[in-house]
Amino acid sequence: MTKILRIDSSIKGDASVSHKLLDRTLARLTAAHPGAEVASRDLSAGIPAIDGAWIGAIFTPAADRDAGQAEIAAFSDTLLAEVRAADTLLIALPVYNFGVPAQLKAWFDHLGRNGETFRYTEAGPEGLLKGKRAFVVFTSDGTQFGSEIDFASGWVKQMLGFFGITDVQFVHADQLVFDAEATLKAAEAQIDALAV
């Protein structure tokens, strides 16, 4: 059975373009995979950034953690477990100031754990979340997808690949300020044409 993890990250919530396009993408996926299990995490309210306390918690053996460290590690472990359980990731990527929203960056930071999502080998880093796929919905007011000022899509693809997730498809509704209606129609057509 297909297991889908939906990650929303826009601070505009249900009113965001990325949320609406994620709805359509999810509908397409669930129509292609009847009975798929869907889990969701909305990052819009923000999640704790990693810091020195996080490093201390993660690098302390579970049996030796104090109560504060256990709480920090448990949150990070929950995010990791959600990704591990999924076959398919569905990620909203609204572009803020040419880059990834802080809350989505923090989510990736929590996942970036040596020995959990990647490991270093003599041949270089190896991703440990192989066999999964990802659909990323890129939205922006003015940043063109894949342009020299798009510091978001390439970064997300790099992070997913670093974790071993190399089957990544993008849908983009970019430069919405210029012609929102045509851009949205084009994005919807991309969703309808996805290899699901």
Automatic annotation (TrEMBL):
Catalytic activity, EC: 1.6.5.-, 1.7.1.17
Reactions this protein catalyses: 2 a quinone + NADH + H(+) = 2 a 1,4-benzosemiquinone + NAD(+); N,N-dimethyl-1,4-phenylenediamine + anthranilate + 2 NAD(+) = 2-(4-dimethylaminophenyl)diazenylbenzoate + 2 NADH + 2 H(+)
Keyword NAD recorded: yes
Subunit structure: Homodimer.
Organism, scientific name: Pseudodonghicola flavimaris
Binding site for FMN: 10, 16-18
Summary of the function given for this chain in its UniProt record: Also exhibits azoreductase activity. Catalyzes the reductive cleavage of the azo bond in aromatic azo compounds to the corresponding amines. Quinone reductase that provides resistance to thiol-specific stress caused by electrophilic quinones.
Protein name per UniProt: FMN dependent NADH:quinone oxidoreductase
The entry's keywords: Flavoprotein, FMN, NAD, Oxidoreductase
Cofactor(s), by name: FMN
Keyword Protein transport found: no
Residues covered by the Flavodoxin-like fold domain: 2-193
InterPro entries, per the entry: Flavodoxin_fold, Flavoprotein-like_sf, FMN-dep_NADH:Q_OxRdtase_AzoR1, NADH:quinone_OxRdtase_FMN_depd
TM regions (residue ranges): none
Cofactor annotation comment: Binds 1 FMN per subunit.
Stored PANTHER family: FMN-DEPENDENT NADH-AZOREDUCTASE 1, FMN-DEPENDENT NADH:QUINONE OXIDOREDUCTASE
Family that this chain belongs to: Belongs to the azoreductase type 1 family.
Highest taxon above the source species: Bacteria
